Amino acid sequence: MPDLILHDYAFSANCYKIRLAASLLGLTLKDRVEYDVLKGETRTPEYLSKVNANGRIPVLQIGDDTFLPESGAACHYLADGTDLIPTDRLQHAQVLQWMFFEQYSFEPYAGTLRFWLAKKGIETLTAEQKESIPEKRKQGEAALAIMDDHLSTRKFFVADKLTVADVALYAYAHVSPQGGFDLSKFPNVQAWCERITQQPGYIALD
Amino acid sequence: MPDLILHDYAFSANCYKIRLAASLLGLTLKDRVEYDVLKGETRTPEYLSKVNANGRIPVLQIGDDTFLPESGAACHYLADGTDLIPTDRLQHAQVLQWMFFEQYSFEPYAGTLRFWLAKKGIETLTAEQKESIPEKRKQGEAALAIMDDHLSTRKFFVADKLTVADVALYAYAHVSPQGGFDLSKFPNVQAWCERITQQPGYIALD
């Protein structure tokens, strides 16, 4: 494995996915380069030209010259060939199913509300942003309900063992109360979150 | 390969990704089951309990009892072990990078505007929806600009050959003019779209 450097924002649970996946796999990140997204540090000309043209964080740097954006892609790179990605064709696709679900149907709601309420502060939001909170709450709760129902008969999301799908979903689920979500409504999600913390190599979001 | 049934909505370019991937791979879908999302046919109790708890389309049914939601996961299932998914660890992750980019940074803008303007009709939109059009236009154009720049030195998105990343990005890119995007501003995207149509097994969105 080449040297790994994480272009990082400590608060971001998308960034945490990569730190958690690496730790669960026993991999050491050589460095973490911290950016303050509130100060626009991922939108500078240098960042856009060198690290990620999409201006987003995280990016996993692999060796000197390879930059891999998208948390799900970076987790897949780290976990490829390990127990965190099933070799079975259908199970591999199901892992990706939940990772796409997370990015499309959960993170835009749970992640945005956490960022707004726990980082920016509700007093900084525009009128439109404030008005959008109930709909984001509804969508985030709908995603948590789907996760809770799925976990009613399973210990983990796919193949009844820990995979990168769990890593991806855990990141924003376990801190969703910071965005105003009540996890006591989703007891299977709560129990699964507890289960994740008991995995060898688990690290908390710092 | 078990029998494949696509739970489908003909207008949806997310559904088209699966039809296109199957055709490029020479796979035959045994059946297409059509749903009218405007009539709520993917939100019925039966659909939610049997096909997809998330109430979304497409879903790839594999055999009698396995239902795989998320277009990217379904494309990965179909293409696993074929030339459309590189075996190289980094290239495989880069394919997923662009598929996550598509779902997070492109489809929510290009897909929504196409659905609103070409299917629902602008006269049916709420005031909030109409007000959100300029921002969605800006975000969609930003994604097209990133794609255009990436394609300035490449024929395809990853590994200089056709992969499921191209299938995923092509779906909404080639019909983005239906959502009011001007592809003449993105000549590398235009040339790449033309290149896709020349691939053996290509089928148009019907």
TrEMBL record, chains A, B:
<comment type="similarity">
    <text>Belongs to the GST superfamily.</text>
</comment>
<feature type="domain" description="GST N-terminal">
    <location>
        <begin position="2"/>
        <end position="86"/>
    </location>
</feature>
<dbReference type="InterPro" id="IPR036249">
    <property type="entry name" value="Thioredoxin-like_sf"/>
</dbReference>
<dbReference type="InterPro" id="IPR040079">
    <property type="entry name" value="Glutathione_S-Trfase"/>
</dbReference>
<feature type="domain" description="GST C-terminal">
    <location>
        <begin position="88"/>
        <end position="206"/>
    </location>
</feature>
<dbReference type="Pfam" id="PF13417">
    <property type="entry name" value="GST_N_3"/>
</dbReference>
<protein>
    <recommendedName>
        <fullName>Glutathione S-transferase</fullName>
    </recommendedName>
</protein>
<dbReference type="InterPro" id="IPR010987">
    <property type="entry name" value="Glutathione-S-Trfase_C-like"/>
</dbReference>
<dbReference type="Pfam" id="PF00043">
    <property type="entry name" value="GST_C"/>
</dbReference>
<dbReference type="InterPro" id="IPR004045">
    <property type="entry name" value="Glutathione_S-Trfase_N"/>
</dbReference>
<dbReference type="InterPro" id="IPR036282">
    <property type="entry name" value="Glutathione-S-Trfase_C_sf"/>
</dbReference>
<dbReference type="InterPro" id="IPR004046">
    <property type="entry name" value="GST_C"/>
</dbReference>
